[in-house]
Amino acid sequence: MAPLRAIVAALLLLYACRFDPIGLQLADGWHASSVAVWRRVHPDMIAVAPDHNYLYITCETRAGLNAPSLYLHNLQSGRSVLLVSGLNRADGLKLAPDGSLWIGEEFDHGLIWRVAEPGKLPAEQFVQRDKAAASHPAIAPLRRAGRFAHEGIAFARDGGYAYLADENPHGALYRYRMRPPHLLQLLDGRLHWRTVPDPLDARAFARRVGATQFNRMEDIEVLDDGRLLIAETDAPRIIAVTDLGARATVTTYLADRRIHHPDNLAWDAGRHWLWITDDDRPSRLWRWDGLHLRQIARHDHAEITGVTPLGDDILINLQGRDDGPELTVRLREERAQ
Predict the structure, then answer these.
(1) Strand 139-141, strand 173-177: pairing
(2) Which of 14, 87, 184, 296 is deepest in the core (most CB within 10 A)?
(3) pLDDT in tens, 13-42
(4) What is the pLDDT of residue 282?
(5) 285 within 8 A of 295, measured Cβ to Cβ
(6) Preceding omega of 21 cis (within 30 degrees of 0)
(7) Is the N-terminal amide bond of 199 cis, ω within 30° of 0?
(8) Closest by CA position to 231, among listed 264, 198, 202, 269
(9) Does the reported pTM lie above 0.85?
(10) Are 84 and 70 a contacting pair, CB within 8 Å?
């Protein structure tokens, strides 16, 4: 029996060496480790708390009082807590300059939901969408920011505007004035900003006035120089928008045939890299340094979402994984000695 046990142990060791529980194919020098395990909550965007100890993660689930919408994950303890349920396809997620957390619903009648002082929000709150009500006064719909498919959310460097993208084949780009008067404006066909009279009718108004149309805008990032980068997934390309006050300019920032459907973006200010997720099968994570595009990660059985720098590390989600549980993963590059 001893030789048999030795053979079994050797086979198990060989299997363990080959078994990758995460399933990522990584570029040379990069390593992955699991941060959190999810049970079909469809983790999407990630926002890092100011103290870098907590992650906020949206869940792209259908509306329902028991459907998770926002989790808080403690990086120190590894514990995850459900903060909010009940939103419909919670996707977009950004911390605003005032410290509030903005959550965007990605469907035709989606709204921005604002969470004031998210670090103080008690766990297991819920939203009743049909009544536009929530179980806690810190959670409220921001109707003035428009009703459309919200995914891309970004804030100007000076905090004056929030930029919002309608994720639609004929979607318009909007900006919301953060200071009174709180106006919602869209980019019209002449690339001028035009006030939307009724934000709840934003999409219909955009079509009536001939707004500049984009082909399914996804995420938005802001560069150090203030330009907006927007993933236009069905183009496929990443555009740069420069807000000049009364008008704007739109140019192509990156178009590469290797990127099929650019989705989530993250500007790595420390290394001046743009991180790009590719919503395709297989799904890929790309790094663009301004000269060279490099594939850093690939997954054949999940969508890579929510890319976010955390120091020198990169955080991603593996959503809809069909070869195991959904995950939040930390990617780390091995430094040359």
Answers:
(1) unpaired
(2) 87
(3) 333 333 468 999 999 999 999 999 999 999
(4) 97
(5) yes
(6) no
(7) no
(8) 264
(9) yes
(10) yes
